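User: Fold this; tokens only.

Assistant: Input:
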Amino acid sequence: VQTCALPIWLFSQTPHIENLRKILPFLRDSARIDSMNKLSLLYIEQSVKDSAEYYATLAYNQSSALHYIHGKAESISHQGNIKTYFYGNLSEAEKLDKESIGLYRKTENKAGMGPAYDHLAFVSFGQSKYDEALDYSNQCYALFKKSQDESGMSDILGLISQIHIKRGEFDKAFDAGQ
């Protein structure tokens, strides 16, 4: 008897995806765009490239048509993640992340800006741009702290520690790790 071990997240995310896909035709305007962006993110997390790209592009196009800046910022952020995780194109991801953050700055709704900075710090680190990565990481940490996102703060502190190690600043790396 062979068993197939499927990741636990598959069972928890698939119904959520199906529910979002079922209600999508009934949603309008920003609610529809926000749902498409959520679908794109869920598909990125499940490594389903075509669907992740489809919903990110659809959200971008509809956000542009409605002049919905937050939706556009979020869809561009997801496109940056797609460039990294599916294509390994860190320089293109960096451009998209910067564009996304620029749009987040133009809107009152900053939700999503922390993860955009987190990803920008990661792709900068991946390109050995340690000074930039540290700057973005510090901005990211401040955003996560402001929103009381302890998981986000912990995640970015791990990257800050790695940046200090690469820069040879072992005491600072230890402090960040603490």
